[in-house]
Each structure stands twice: as C-alpha cells, then as structure tokens.
Write a structure and sequence with these properties.
10-stranded mixed β-sheet; Leucine-rich repeat, LRR (right-handed beta-alpha superhelix)
Length: 352
C-alpha cells in the first residue's frame, strides 16, 4: 500500500499506520482534530501528507522515523506539538510553523523535531519566533549542531514571489510570480544577499507579462544577467546613488520599447538594449566595455562616453539616428566594425 485516503467524519487517529514502510502519501479528512501518538511512526517512505486545517494537536512521535519527508507545513489551527513528533526525520529540510502556544520538550533534552539533521529553514509567524528561539537555545536540539535559519513568515511570503537559486556568491533571481507595477527586488533571501537577476532558465522570460513598469534594484546587486527583462514593459530602473553594476548581460533589456533610463554598469553585454526605442540621453561614464549590438536600433539615443571606455563592439550603435556628435578618449582601444553604421545624423567626431 503506497497511497491512502481516509474519508468520513474521523476526529482522531492514533498509531494508525505504524510501520507502514511502503506508504508514500496520505490524505486525511477535513474533520480531523488530533493526529495522535505514533500515528505515522516509522513510515519510512512517506513523502507527502496534508495536515487538515482543523487539526489542533500533533501527538507524541506522530511522525517519528519518517525519513523521506522533506517539508512540513503545519496549519494555523495547531496549538500543541508533543514530544518527539518529528523525531528522526533526517530528510526534513523545511518546517513552516503556525502561531504556537506550546512545544513539548522530550526526554533527550531536545524538542519535537530532535534528529532532523538536514533541517535548514524554519518559517514562522513573528509571534512564534521567540518561542522557537527559546527552545533552540535551551536544548541540544540535534545530536550534532546544525545551523538552522528562522525566517519570519512575512519575509517567506516575499520569497514565494520569485524563482531563485542559492549560490556560493548569493541569491540569483530568475523569475517573478507577482503582478506589481513597481517591483522592488529584495536585498536578501534566506539570509543570503541577492546578487543577480537573470532570465528564466527555460524560456528567458521570467518577468514577461507581469505588468512591471518600475524596477528598484537592491544595493547588493552585482549584475543583471542574460535576458533578465527582455521584452518586458519596464519604463524605469532605479538604484542607489553611486551604485555601479559589474555588468548588464546579453539581451538584458532587449526589446523594452518603453524603457527611458538604464542602470549604471561597467560592462554592457551583447544586444543588452537592442530595440529600446524610447531611450534618450544617457551617460555611460562608468562603462568599460560596450559589446556588439548593445544599443542597436535605439533611434532616439544620445550618449556621453566616459573616460574608462576601452571597447565599442560591432554594430553597437547601428541605426542610432539621433547621435549627432561623439567624443572618444585616449583610453579607447578598439571600435568594432559598423559600430556607428546608419547613424545618419552623426557629423561631429572628436578624438582626444
């Protein structure tokens, strides 16, 4: 038996499935009020369970030895978690707690989830966090010390708006699930700094169709990656005064036809602003490299190049018909082929 669904007006279950080692999924009835002692103990294959929203008590050793459980979402109705409820759930990585009134200590000087040696994150309402911290600080908690992060529920809800991954450097966001007109990208998620925004892994359109018009970048951000905002309705991008990104990646804002300003960066990737027909006067004082087709077809663009510029790639400013004059400084090492082709109003070129 791998899956089971319990129907009817059951209010309490106790020792019901002890040792059902092949059981993978259990669906419990909405009428359930108490998950009693050892109800699913030693169900070593259990991967998924819904705890109904009426449950108030989780009994002693209710999920003891459920080593295949990786996440547990405890509903707001639960007020008491008894000793050893999740003892030995070595695969558990995340637990979401409600506003609890009591967590029963167990006889090993631990807590209800002693032995959850893979646990990384605890998510809880603000009111519950002091209780959790008190329990953690007052006990050994695990057979070995594990660094567990307690995340306030409000912060967790924000994180659910994004698709992201954690790297050694920090968090990389590659998708957005909300629909806010003004998008303020968080400085950190899961305790790590947000260092990059990139396009969706599958279709490069993580922000397309979300209605985002203004983007506020965090001061922790280092780069806007490939296809991050390609084809979106973004009008403006804001960042801290003095903040300079390491790079804006390939096609980062390609086809953003309403974009009127750009963030400061040291490197502007291939086609980063290609087809951004609303771009007007911009200052590229911090830019060291402008790659191929970076501003291709930006018909209203007017630019001021900076002293750090070393490279202008091929077709970088092709069809930028509003450029009338350009000044190159001594730091410039290379201008690619057709960099200013079809810039029909370009009359003044100054070499310093």
């Amino acid at each position: 038996m791998e899956r089971i669904e319990i129907k009817g007006r059951v209010r309490k279950l106790e020792e019901t499935f002890v040792g059902c080692s092949n059981l993978k999924e259990v669906k419990l009835p909405d009428t359930l009020i108490e998950l009693g002692d050892s109800v699913l103990a030693s169900c070593s294959s259990l991967e998924k369970i819904n705890i109904p929203k009426q449950v108030e008590i989780i009994g002693e050793y209710a999920f003891q030895g459920c080593i295949s459980l990786q996440e547990m979402e405890i509903p707001d109705s639960v007020k008491v978690i008894n000793k050893g409820a999740f003892f030995g759930c070595i695969g558990m990585r995340m637990i979401r707690f409600p506003e609890l009134t009591w967590i029963e200590p167990d006889e090993w000087d631990g807590v209800a989830f002693t032995g959850c040696t893979s646990l990384e994150t605890i998510i809880a309402p603000k009111e519950t966090i002091p209780l959790l911290k008190e329990v953690l600080e007052a006990s050994d908690f695990f057979p070995r010390r594990v660094d567990v992060q307690i995340v306030e529920e409000e912060e967790e809800r924000e994180e659910r708006l994004y698709d992201y991954e954690k790297t050694k450097e920090g968090v990389v966001i590659y998708g957005y699930r909300g629909n806010e007109r003004i998008l303020e990208i968080p400085e950190q998620m899961e305790g790590k700094p947000v260092v990059a925004v990139e396009g969706n892994r599958e279709n490069h359109q993580g922000f397309v169709g979300k209605g985002v018009e203004e983007v506020i970048l965090p001061k922790t951000l280092k780069r806007i990656g490939s296809c991050a905002f390609e084809g979106t309705s973004v009008l403006s991008v804001f960042m801290d005064e003095g903040q300079v990104l390491e790079e804006i990646g390939e096609h980062g804002f390609k086809g953003c036809t309403q974009l009127g300003s750009i963030p400061r960066a040291k490197r502007i990737g291939i086609g980063a602003f290609e087809g951004c027909i609303s771009l007007g006067g911009i200052d590229l004082q911090d830019v060291e490299r402008i790659e191929d087709r970076a501003f291709y077809g930006c018909i209203f663009l007017k630019v001021k190049l900076g002293e750090t510029l070393k490279l202008i790639g091929s077709e970088a400013f092709k069809y930028c018909n509003s450029i009338r004059g350009i000044s190159f400084l001594a730091t410039l090492e290379r201008i690619g082929s057709m960099a200013f082709e079809e810039c029909r109003n370009l009359h003044d070129i100054e070499m310093n």
